[in-house]
Amino acid sequence: MNSIRTAARRVREQDAGLTLVELIIYSLLLSVIVAIGGGMLISSITTQRDVTRITTATSDGQVVASSVEEGIRNAGGSTPISVASNSFGQVLKSRTAKVTQAGAVTWECRAWFHRFTGEVYTRRSATAVPTPATAGDLAGWTLLAQGVTLAPGQTAIFQSTGSTAAPKVRVVFDIAGTDTAPVRIDTDIAALKTPTTGTAPASCA
Q: Would you kindly state where each structural domain of the chain is located, as residue ranges?
């Protein structure tokens, strides 16, 4: 009889479920696991976002540098390059040589404009390119990058560091990357030996 009562009591104890203390302990353990897992997930998402931003910023910055390099490498003439600023932004202009498939040399005007709100544009023309003074003047220009700002200690992103005989430009700027770390672009571009013949324009300044 006692054995039957003991067995019945054990069944009732098993059916009673978890005690309050056990529930509290399990809840605390679950909270810790969720917090750790959530923190790892947030960290992973943040890291991936920062990598994407840095990659995009680097790519956009290189687009600007490559565009300027293409124009300055073949700059020539009495005024191969010129740099100027107004209240709207800064402009870099070049008189750039082009060689046709037939071997004929022609010249075109190339220009790059850094709007002080952070955009960089480019334009090419058979005649001198006017310097933009308003947003409306940017019609016909091609946007290369956004989020471009002056690098610390610099007063301009386009800097003429050469001479008429040996044109050279330094391109230096920061472009928005992560929330705390912009991407720095800093390159020197020198003109190669260019033809002295060819057609107009005589100057693009």
A: 48-190
